Amino acid sequence: MKDKQIEKLIKSEQKRQKKVVNLIASENYVSSDVLAALGSELTNKYSEGYPGARYYGGNEIMDIIEETARERALSLFGLNPSEWGVNVQALSGSPANLAVYTALIPLGEKIMGMSLDHGGHLTHGHKVSASGKFWVQIAYGVSKETERLDFDEL
């Protein structure tokens, strides 16, 4: 890498990740194959839309890759492709959660989610998130004594 400062920072992050147990649900340690794919020429390609219906040209290979991933996901979970669809496009949990909320919960209704300070996610109705602006959060947490969920309280 030509940029030695960034190279050093990447190596520092690699060391940090090897020394800690990461308990953040939205972060994952990917395989070396995933790291290699993400660092490949695939990163250069913008593929907005879905296979066969992209907004830009030059996506023939990306379409095959995405269709392969979709087929593998359906197979992995034993799902019938005539009954199920799979979106394998990269999304963080936030837009995915928002999609579910908007599809299932009328605006202004209540959502129940773990509070942020007890391990929940911003999209569980926190006031800085769209979920906290569009819906009313009914928050829950863990017992201070046991550090476990109190199902009677829930």
Summarize this entry quickly.
By secondary structure, this protein is mainly alpha-helical. It contains 5 helices and 4 strands; from the N terminus they run ααββααβαβ. The protein is extended, with a radius of gyration of 20 Å.
Topology overview:
Elements: H1 4-19, H2 32-38, E1 49-50, E2 53-54, H3 60-76, H4 93-104, E3 110-114, H5 130-134, E4 136-140
Parallel strand pairs: 3-4
Antiparallel strand pairs: 1-2
What does this molecule look like?
- Pfam families: SHMT.
- GO terms for molecular function: glycine hydroxymethyltransferase activity; pyridoxal phosphate binding.
- Its cofactor is pyridoxal 5'-phosphate.
- With 154 residues, this protein is mainly α.
- It folds into two domains: 28-90, no CATH class; 93-140, no CATH class.
- It has helices at residues 4-19, 32-38, 60-76, 93-104, 130-134; strands at 49-50, 53-54, 110-114, 136-140.
- The strands form two sheets. A two-stranded antiparallel sheet has the order 1-2. A two-stranded parallel sheet has the order 3-4.
- The longest helix has 17 residues, at 60-76.
- It is extended and about 55 Å long.
- It starts with a helix and ends in a 14-residue tail after the last strand.
What is the H-and-E element order?
HHEEHHEHE
Note the overall shape: extended
User: Structural class of the secondary elements?
Assistant: mainly alpha
Strand order, main sheet: write it out: 1-2
The radius of gyration is 20 Å
Task: Count the DSSP helices.
Answer: 5
Number of domains: 2
* Spatial separation of the terminal alpha carbons: 52 Å
- Unreliable sequence segments: none
| Beta-strand segment tally | 4
The main β sheet shows up as: 2 strands, antiparallel
Mean pLDDT: 90
Strand content: 5-15%
Helical amount: 25-40%
Pfam family, one: SHMT
InterPro entries: PyrdxlP-dep_Trfase (IPR015424), PyrdxlP-dep_Trfase_major (IPR015421), Ser_HO-MeTrfase-like (IPR049943), SHMT-like_dom (IPR039429)
GO molecular function, one term: glycine hydroxymethyltransferase activity
Cofactor: pyridoxal 5'-phosphate
